[in-house]
Design brief:
about 0% strand, DUF3618 domain-containing protein, elongated, about 70% helix, mainly alpha
């Protein structure tokens, strides 16, 4: 970034206002991303179809099984 020279107070106030709007936009974007990060999955919603629930359960089970197999392999490899 290059330093900017300002000649009047109005230029400083304008730049400050522009920076505040950019900060507010970034803050809103960040809060939206943060809230979507901890959003409850659709499959756990009461309105979800049984197919979505089953798919979610199957996917979670497959992930847990994969983690268990990986853990077992690592345990056997580093047992000593």
């Amino acid at each position: 970034m290059t330093p900017t020279s300002y000649t009047t107070i109005e230029e400083i106030q304008l730049r400050k206002a522009m920076l505040q709007t950019e900060i507010q936009k970034d803050s809103n974007k960040l809060s939206n991303e943060w809230s979507s990060l901890f959003k409850k999955p659709e499959a756990l919603d009461r309105k979800a179809s049984p197919t979505k629930r089953f798919n979610s359960l199957l996917s979670t089970g497959a992930g847990l099984f994969d983690a268990m197999i990986l853990g077992w392999k690592l345990y056997r490899k580093f047992k000593k």
